[in-house]
Write a sequence for this structure.
C-alpha cells in the first residue's frame, strides 16, 4: 500500500532539497538544467534559484560571453567549479578578471581544471603567456583543487592558493613553489612530466613542508629525487599512506629517502629503472613499514644494457 501511494505521488510534492540533489546527480549542463526546469510549474523556481546547480562552469572555444554571464548570475554567491577546455583569449581573461558581482570570480573558485588543447607552434608561446599572466595576477583564496593538463609546450604558472588541497599536473609546473603557499592543507599531489626537464627536486622540496600529505604520485623522467636537508629522525610526511612512483633515473638513494619519510605507508607502487641488485638493497627497507598492505615493484632497463 505504501509503495503504491508513493508511485502515485505527484512530482510537485517532491521536497526541494531532494529535487536539487537528484538534478545535481544527473547533470550540470545549462541546456539540460533549463529543460528540467520546464518539467512542471514548480520546478523553475527550484532550478533557477539554486545557485549550486549552476556553479559547474565549463568554458570551451564556442562559449560566448553572454552564456558565461548568464550562468554566473544564476550561480549566485556559491563557490565555483571552473573548467577550461580551450586556450585562453585576451577577451576571456579580461572578462573573468573584471567580473566583480557579487564578488570576483577568482575568489569563488574552489575547483579549477585547465585542459589545453594542442595548437600549432607559432601560437603556443602567446597562448601560454596569457595563462601565466592570468594565474600570476590573482590570489585564489577558496581554491581547493587544481588540475592543469597541457598538450603542447610546458605550462609553467605561478599560483597563490593557500588553501589548496589537491594538485594534479600533466606537462605543467608551478613556478616559484616557495611562493605558492603550499602548507598544511595540501594532501594529494600528482605530477606527470616527460621530456621537458621539469624540476622534480623543486616539487619534493615544496611538499616537504606539507605535513598532512596523504598521497604522492610522480611519473617523470627528469632525474634524481632530492629532498631538502631535514633532521634524519623526523619523518616529513607522517600521514602519507599512498605513494606511486614511476620514474627514470631517480636513483636508489633518492627513492629510499622518500620512503624513509613516510613511515605509515599502506600502498606503494614503484616503476623504475633500478638494476636488479638494487632491489636486494631496497627490500629490507619495507620491513619497518608495518602498515604496508599493497606493494608493487616493476623494473625496466634500457635495451643497450
Amino acid at each position: 500500500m505504501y509503495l503504491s501511494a508513493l508511485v502515485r505521488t505527484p512530482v510537485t510534492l517532491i521536497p526541494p532539497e531532494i529535487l536539487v540533489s537528484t538534478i545535481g546527480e544527473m547533470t550540470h549542463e545549462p541546456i539540460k538544467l533549463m529543460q528540467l526546469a520546464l518539467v512542471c510549474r514548480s520546478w523553475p523556481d527550484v532550478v533557477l534559484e539554486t545557485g549550486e546547480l549552476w556553479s559547474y562552469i565549463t568554458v570551451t572555444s564556442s562559449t560566448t560571453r553572454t552564456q558565461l554571464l548568464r550562468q554566473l548570475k544564476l550561480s549566485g554567491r556559491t563557490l565555483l567549479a571552473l573548467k577550461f577546455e580551450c586556450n585562453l583569449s585576451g577577451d576571456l581573461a579580461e572578462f573573468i578578471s573584471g567580473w566583480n558581482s557579487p564578488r570576483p570570480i577568482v575568489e569563488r573558485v574552489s575547483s579549477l581544471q585547465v585542459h589545453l588543447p594542442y595548437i600549432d607552434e607559432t601560437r603556443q608561446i602567446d597562448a601560454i603567456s596569457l595563462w601565466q599572466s592570468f594565474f600570476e595576477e590573482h590570489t585564489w583564496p577558496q581554491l581547493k583543487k587544481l588540475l592543469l593538463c597541457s598538450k603542447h609546450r610546458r605550462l609553467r604558472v605561478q599560483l597563490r592558493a593557500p588553501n589548496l588541497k589537491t594538485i594534479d599536473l600533466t606537462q605543467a609546473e608551478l613556478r616559484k613553489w616557495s611562493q605558492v603557499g603550499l602548507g598544511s592543507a595540501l594532501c594529494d599531489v600528482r605530477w606527470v612530466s616527460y621530456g621537458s626537464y621539469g624540476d622534480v627536486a623543486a616539487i619534493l622540496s615544496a611538499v616537504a613542508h606539507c605535513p598532512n600529505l596523504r598521497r604522492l604520485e610522480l611519473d617523470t623522467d627528469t632525474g634524481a629525487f632530492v629532498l631538502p636537508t631535514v633532521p634524519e629522525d623526523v619523518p616529513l610526511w607522517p600521514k602519507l599512506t599512498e605513494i606511486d612512483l614511476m620514474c627514470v633515473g631517480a636513483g636508489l638513494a633518492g627513492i629510499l629517502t622518500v620512503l624513509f619519510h613516510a613511515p605509515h605507508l599502506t600502498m606503494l607502487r614503484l616503476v623504475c629503472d633500478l638494476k636488479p641488485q638494487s632491489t636486494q638493497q631496497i627490500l629490507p627497507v619495507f620491513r619497518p613499514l608495518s602498515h604496508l598492505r599493497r606493494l608493487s615493484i616493476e623494473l625496466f632497463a634500457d635495451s643497450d644494457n
The first strand starts at residue 56 and ends at 59.
